[in-house]
Structure formats: C-alpha cells, structure tokens
Write a structure and sequence with these properties.
Layout: H1 3-17, H2 21-27, H3 39-49, H4 53-81
Helix pairs in contact: 1-4, 3-4
Length: 88
C-alpha cells in the first residue's frame, strides 16, 4: 500500500531537483567557471542579468518539457509494472 506514495514522492523529488535554484545561487552563484550552474541558475542569469528574456523563456520551456517527459516515462513504467495496484 506504500507503493503509490513512493511513486508520488519520486515524481515530486525529480521535479524539485530541477528547481534547486536557491541553494546554488546563495552558495556558489554558479561556481567557478559555471561548474555548479544548473538550469534554473542559467535561466536567471539569461533573463535578469543579461536581459535576454527570450532565451530564458526558451530554456524554461525546455526544462518544463524535460520534467514532463521524465514524469510521463516514470508513470508509464509504474503503470506497466502494476505498482499502483493495491495488493491486499
């Protein structure tokens, strides 16, 4: 009965990992030579520092599609394995 909960947590944590902006921005600001730069940091730098809003919007859409694809793939895998079913 815990399998649906685990599936939901995995999906939410995957999406949350794509949005780890605050930690990276405060601690390293992208790091030396962009070594710790993530998608959210790149979007922020393009949009608000370089004033390239169209580039930031385009990368945001790509990140959205990536998160959706990962979620859809995971849901397909879970449904195929029958992990959503309650087994009493």
């Amino acid at each position: 009965s815990i399998r649906p909960v685990i599936a939901t947590v995995v999906i939410m944590e995957t999406v949350d990992a794509l949005n780890a902006f605050t930690t990276v921005n405060i601690m390293t600001g992208g790091g030396p030579a962009n070594a710790t730069q993530i998608f959210a940091q790149f979007i922020y730098l393009q949009g608000f520092r370089s004033l390239r809003f169209s580039d930031a919007a385009a990368v945001s859409v790509v990140v959205l599609l990536l998160a959706g694809a990962v979620t859809a793939l995971y849901l397909w895998f879970v449904q195929r394995r029958g992990l959503w079913e309650d087994r009493a």
